[in-house]
Amino acid sequence: MDGKDGNGGYFRYRSSQNKEWFLRVGEPDVRLLYGCYTKAMFVTMSLLIKQAWLQDGEERLWLVFSDSYIYNSPFNNWYFSCSGIPGCVPDNNPTENCNLDLKGHASMEGVVSMRRGFQETVQLELPKMIHNHSSLRICPRREFPVLNINNALSNECFMQYYALFDWTVDCCTSDHSLLVNSEHRLSQPITPERIQTMRNSLNGVFEDDFTKRSDMVQSCKDIHIVRYTQIPETNGNHHHLGMMCVCNCVQFFEQQYCYQSLIVQHRSELVLRGTKIAGGSTKKKKTKKELERMNMMVALDSRRKYKKTTKEIERHTKTNNDLQKMIQEKEQELQDI
Ligand SMILES: [Zn+2]
What percentage of the chain's residues is helix, strand, coil (to nearest 5)? Predict the structure, then answer.
């Protein structure tokens, strides 16, 4: 849209008075469309954007853009979650990659021999392509960073989020999922009104006018919906068994983790290991005296260790029980509402 990433063709459809319009309105609007959580939301958002662009006098641009990417199926499936599969986001590059793969290049022979007759192509080349892309390439291994607790512990921003996180305020249950506050909404209670606004947005219902269109995406970004699923068999880390937390947010679809899914996935381990590592060790070189003192502290500490571990386990069990109880209570509360 900005004319830099291969979409410069759109420049000729803009009205000449609005030179910086692409950066101020056009590009953010296209990002809003990509950031829609559902098809219904995408449709409503496109109508709001239409109003905005028409008011700005960009009717010609809207007609060209909407003909290609809003009303033209299947080219209108490009909001981030349209595949329904985390890790599978809409992207043009795989097709381009496939092209290269088929034709080959200087250092790699292509799957298909080019410039052959129709009969040979149908009988020889196409079966080769199908064989190559199906039988030879099944079962890709997938890593899910959400399963790796080190991703949480080594991420300073996540640890800051965790330090401020309060299970009784920043999380509640609804429809067999956990609703979790985003980084920017910590300590703001997840009220039934907020949940309703988010659900409305997901269903493509938006009551404000088009000037506030970004609020529709924001209301969904503010509350992450985390749910449990079975760990997929294609996960590269085979020693993982059990359940995996999956979120509905953009980051989860793009990177297979987000702070909210990490915090639910590792909630019991974080209680034990979280605060310890959050403090972190300083990288400053220590003097001999300091090292001696540290060694003494370690020796003293190991004597207390047994006592401490028992205490930690007690606290851990208590937190887990509390959490379970809290989830049940919250579920009941929400049902009563
Ligand atoms: Zn998320």
Answer: 60, 10, 35
Cα–Cα distances (Å) from 149 to 120, 189, 258, 284, in that order, read 53, 27, 12, 26
CA–CA separation, 323 and 129 (whole Å): 53
Residue 120 confidence (pLDDT) above 80: yes
pLDDT tens-digit map of 214-262: 999 999 999 999 999 988 776 666 555 688 999 999 999 999 999 999 9
What's the gap in Å between 251 CA and the centre of ligand 1?
Answer: 6
Q: Ligand 1 center to residue 198 CA distance, Å?
A: 14
In percent, the amount of the chain with pLDDT more than 70 equals 71
CA separation for the pair 219, 197 (Å, rounded):
7
3-state DSSP assignment of residue 45: helix
Provide the β-strand partners of residue 189: none
| Ion ligand 1, residue ranges at CB < 5 A | 224, 247, 249, 252, 258, 260
CA angle 314, 325, 329 (to 5 degrees): 160
50 CA distance to ligand 1 centroid (A)? 29
Banded model confidence at residue 162, pLDDT cuts 50, 70, 90: very high
State the residue for tokens 């989020």: 161
E strands, 143-293, are 171-174, 177-181, 223-230, 243-247
Q: How far apart are the CA of 210 and the centre of ligand 1, in A? A: 26
27 to each of 5, 53, 197, 298, how far by Cα in Å?
11, 12, 25, 56
Rounded Cα distance, 243 and 246, in Å: 10
Q: Are 165 and 323 in contact (CB under 8 A)?
A: no
- The single-letter code of the amino acid at 261 is S
**Residue-range domain boundaries for the chain:** 8-69, 93-137, 145-279
User: Predicted confidence band at 86 (pLDDT cuts at 50, 70, 90)?
Assistant: confident
Tokens representing 186 are 């910590």
Q: Report which DSSP code applies to 287.
A: P
Whole-prediction pTM value?
Answer: 0.69
